[in-house]
Amino acid sequence: MTVDLELAPKTKRPAGEPCCEPVVYPDVEREQAERMATIAKALGDPIRLQLVDVLRKHAGKVCVCELVPLFDLSQPTVSHHLKKLREAGIVGSERRGLWAYYYVIPESLEEFSAWLT
Amino acid sequence: MTVDLELAPKTKRPAGEPCCEPVVYPDVEREQAERMATIAKALGDPIRLQLVDVLRKHAGKVCVCELVPLFDLSQPTVSHHLKKLREAGIVGSERRGLWAYYYVIPESLEEFSAWLT
DNA sequence: CCTATGTATTGACAGACGTGAGTTCAATAG
DNA sequence: CTATTGAACTCACGTCTGTCAATACATAGG
Question: Among A38, A43, B52, B109, whose Cα sits 20 to 30 Å from the Cα of A49?
Answer without folding.
Answer: B52
